[in-house]
Amino acid sequence: FQPSSSCFFFQAEDGIRDVERSRGLGDVYKRQEQLMEIIMVSFDKTKEAFDEFRKSLPWIALPFGDAKRDALKKEHNIIGIPHLVVLKPDGTTIVPNGRADVQKKKAQAYEE
Questions:
Q1: Nearest in space to 23 (alpha carbons), one of 62, 61, 56, 66
Q2: 25-34 core/surface letters (b: 16 or more CB in 10 A; e: else)
């Protein structure tokens, strides 16, 4: 990661509720939090589902129902959820599908 890299973590209540997968991303965040920020982009159907999942995560989130979520989904060509997009500080995409890296490398993802 470059200092101030960002990640958009697209998720929904019927997508990722797998604790192991979100924990893997959490482990990456703990190891890299000085270099990155994760922003949850929720497609939860209810505010209650959003709030429940959000309180278990260490990173920030767009507010429930934020209009920017659809623009981000379109901009990053998100077809399936969960999905992780990694960006350079200038906003250009480094990794369009970071979820696979996190699943494979766990906390060591993006240490190079």
A1: 56
A2: bbebbebbee
